[in-house]
Write a structure and sequence with these properties.
- The complex is a heterodimer.
- By secondary structure, chain A is of the alpha+beta class.
- Chain A is 45% helix and 19% strand.
- In chain A, helix 1 runs antiparallel to helix 3.
- In chain B, helix 3 packs antiparallel against helix 4.
- The N and C termini of chain B lie far apart (59 Å).
- Classes of the chains: A alpha+beta, B mainly alpha.
């Protein structure tokens, strides 16, 4: 195990949590965007995006598998993808809206601000926790250098 | 994805296999000539110092990227700088130990 493997794992977690935060921000910002993407010439509302994460250990690349086989390694986390939430859109009766259908219903994004806030809090706390882990790493290394002094 | 640090990171890792080898067959290690031993020690020290230098370079690069606004992850800058700090501190500790040992030898009464 290399000297900075733990720190690298923490760094990967920080990067992943930041992306999760960015995704939640995007969802929140687009919470009422009725024109997310064009499908068959018609506007469809914004679809909520979610981050999926996986262990770096299971990367399919040959190089990473070889590295795993060669030595024991702490693996970080990586974002495996950003997927769209397939839950149905919300509808609201708003006849004056330019994107309303014949019955006056407007489709709104499937974003729930409450869920997004929970995601934001989760990402923030997780980031904090990983920073604490990093500091603990550093403190441990500094302690090791104290061995034999005095 | 973290960038900027070299793949071989444990600077002092070459020590362990060598130490274990010499302990298993003592007859072999006696045949190592002095200049060879000095050479390999020098190489090891050089590698270790180069490793510290790499960390310093990575940290400098990240800091420059931060100043020019090219960095996407702020934590990568600080992590690189902390790594460089820890590596440098370890080097300083090792140097202090070596100087201590040298001083002890020089103080030896004849």
């Amino acid at each position: 195990m290399a000297m900075f493997d733990g720190m690298n794992a923490t760094a990967s977690a920080l990067t992943a949590q930041r992306l999760r935060m960015d995704t939640a921000s995007g969802n929140m910002a687009n919470a009422s965007a009725t024109r997310g993407q064009m499908v068959d010439g018609e506007w469809e509302p914004y679809r909520r995006k979610m981050v999926t994460m996986g262990s770096e250990e299971n990367r399919p690349s040959f190089a990473s598998q070889l590295q795993n086989a060669e030595r024991e390694q702490t693996s970080g986390v990586q974002v495996t993808g950003i997927v769209e939430d397939q839950t149905p859109f919300q509808t609201m009766h708003q006849p004056g809206h330019p994107d309303a259908d014949e019955d006056g219903n407007v489709q709104l994004p499937n974003v729930d601000p409450l869920k997004e806030m929970v995601d934001v809090m989760g990402a923030t706390r997780s980031y904090e926790a990983n920073v604490t882990v990093f500091d603990a790493h550093k403190a441990m290394k500094m302690n090791a250098m104290e061995i034999g002094r005095s | 994805m973290i960038q900027g640090h070299p793949p071989g990171e444990m600077a002092l890792s070459p020590l362990s296999p060598r130490a274990s080898k010499s302990s298993t067959d003592p007859g072999q290690s006696e045949q190592v000539r002095t200049d060879e031993a000095q050479n390999s020690f020098g190489n090891m020290l050089n590698e270790a110092l180069q490793n510290v230098q790499n960390h310093q370079d990575a940290s400098k690069e990240k800091t420059e990227q931060l100043l020019t606004g090219e960095v996407d992850n702020l934590h990568d800058v600080f992590i690189a700088s902390e790594k460089a700090g820890v590596a440098l501190q370890a080097t300083v500790e090792v140097r202090d130990k070596v100087i201590d040992a040298y001083d002890s030898v020089m103080r030896m009464t004849l």
